[in-house]
Amino acid sequence: MGENKIKVLIGKPGLDGHDRGAKVVARALRDAGFEVVYTGLHQTPEQIVATAIQEDVDVIGVSSLAGAHMYLFPRILELLKEQGAEDIPVFGGGIIPEDEIELLKKAGIKELFTPGSPVQETVDWINQHIKKS
Amino acid sequence: MCSEKTGSRAAERRQAWEDLYAKTIKKHPERLPKFTTLSNEPVKKLYTPDDLADFDYLEELGYPGEFPYTRGVQTTMYRGRLWTMRQFAGLGGAEETNARFHYLMDHGETGLSTAFDMPTLMGYDSDSPMARGEVGKCGVAIDTLADMEILFDRIPLDQVTTSMTINPPASILLAMYVAVAEKQGVPKDKIGGTIQNDMLKEFIAQKTFMLPPEPSIRIIVDTVEYCTKEVPRWNTISISGYHIREAGSTAAQELAFTLADGIGYVQACIDRGLNVDDFAPRLSFFFNAHLDFFEEIAKYRAARRIWARVMKNRFKAKNPRSMMLRFHTQTAGCSLTAQQPYNNVVRTACEGLAAVLGGTQSLHTNSLDEVLSLPTEHAVTIALRTQQIIGEEIGVTNTIDPLAGSYFVESMTNKMEQLALEYINKIDDMGGILKAIEVGFPQKEIAEAAYTYQKQVDEGEKIVVGVNKYQMDDTLPVELLKIDEAVEKRQLERLQKVKDTRDSAKVQNCLQAIETASRNGENLMPHLLEAVKSYVTQQEICDIWRKVFGRYTDPGMF
Fold first, then answer.
1. By the CB < 8 Å criterion, does A24 face chain B?
2. With contacts defined as CB-CB under 8 Å, which chain B residues touch A67?
3. HSE of B158 in the Cβ direction (CA atoms, 13 Å)?
4. Residue A46 touches partner B, C-beta closer than 8 Å
């Protein structure tokens, strides 16, 4: 079991406690047949990257609703690179203004899902873009 | 509500109407396969006197300002004074937030409400590694009394009341507020306001937690005990359903878990040896105003009735003020949409109206851009004007509790009461709210409701205008507020300067005293007051607590 499943890490970096979206997405991804690891709240970027490597996940999804995404998301990419794990793609979700979506994508975040996105969009995106390693 | 004589004739007329309805919908079916509230409670096609057959007016409603307070806690309600218009504000540093406070007061706001940034909320200073990227981002950064002095600069603390949305370090921020007031020459017994100070709902929903539940409750009871004697006009706990609802609960769950938290606090204070009538009048509540208009109004009315009976019957309160559920309301942030954001003004107006028809004491109306960022001055002005229009233009404040007696509203109020009591009984059976939280009961119920709702939206069963119906490609752009990165730099410099210039021997003594009191159970408040006056930082105090009591971390259930 789980052999062929895509493994997703859902992470909540920083001090933000808004976990409604992260948990709904985690559950929907599990229901869609992925293997899901959820970090729980208040993780440092270091902790998220360590978990991703340790759990050997295929993709990382991070959520932020308290305005610190411009620091936290790129920091995760930087740490993945430092640890030679930059092949793990990272997507994000939360309250992220339009212009910052552009900047984050330039920095290497693969996709961003903002309020009102149906969960199915995330499921479809993973199915299209992520391969089981 | 209906006499014997008219009874049989009414039954006939009812049957005739039912037959006609059945015949009509055969030809022209109803719009929806089922009609439910936002929280999935079934709604009947019609409510009549039959729904309130055994309704006892004096027992269930009474008069405003009278037990069980269903119709309102004050005798005169909004004919005497409108609710307090209290817009939650906090952005960047103390300077920017102070300017926003003055702006709001200059435009008719009647009370202050402070939003802190995440590091402050979680007990970290701006110079902590945990604070990187978060200083001033979703509220104001407060590290020491120096920041608090700037935050309340030129604001007379004997004339305004201030609400502070702060939980794990609530006692420290209260101590800072008392210290600022003293510097202004205002004694402790002349200040008024509220600290949220509600850790139970943090474990359940909002998740800004620091210490495990038991020491968290102990510190809360310390603040209640201290304020009861020293700061008599302070609302010591704002028992909050708002965040429970934002986390995705139903209306009935919001009501039930909030009141169960309230019961937990009252019991904890009684267990400390406090007399219920000494502290209960200063407990206040904080509810969400969501989109389902009548469900929300019913929720507030049921809340007052349940609380009054709990306080009288369960806790044997004698003072009527102990039985009055006074509450603040905030419109539902989670109901706002990033798509077509100007529609949010309309949603907020409807929600604010529900809060007023439900008899709120204080109200925050969300700004249209709050789904995207902290509100701009322009957006917050529209939000404040929304309240002023509800209060002064549309006439709903002319009479008290205008929806009382509506067959539907009274039925919904009864229904809300029944659903909440079922949950409260269940939590009692589990051994109380702390035990229920320990096994994740409210957390799971809320996560389940949130997931159900999301599925309903994704499947189009619940309509969100502009999101799953009536979508548009282009919408009017909204100007967004950005927090300048210079805020963090200035904050770090100020903190360093405070640390360099304060009396470090005094700081060490204060921290030692706090550690000793933390361990031996002595009330912490006098020590906190002494410490903040000596410019001890809030993290320095929280670090002591983390050392003495340990940390609480998220179990990460989903």
1. yes
2. 134, 137-138, 373-374, 483
3. 9
4. no
How distant is the Cα of A46 from the closest Cα of chain B, in angstroms? 11
pLDDT in tens, A64-84: 988 899 999 999 999 999 999
CB of B467 within 8 A of CB of B337?
yes
**Predicted pLDDT at A1:** 47
Contact at CB, A41 and B207, closer than 8 angstroms: yes
**Cα separation of A87 and B233, whole Å?**
58
- Rounded to 10°, the helix B170-183/B525-533 angle is 60
3-state SS, residue B534:
coil
Is 0.90 topped by the overall pTM? yes
The whole-angstrom separation of Cα B444 and Cα B93 is: 37
Alpha carbon distance B219, B223 (integer Å): 7
Which segments of A17-58 are extended strands (E)? 35-38
Tell me the shortest Cα–Cα distance from B240 to chain A, in angstroms.
16
Peptide bond into B68 cis (omega under 30): yes
Q: Give percent of chain B with pLDDT exceeding 70.
A: 99
Q: Would the CB atoms of A118 and B468 count as touching at under 8 Å?
A: yes
CA dihedral A73→A75→A79→A82, nearest 10 degrees, is 120
DSSP B337: -
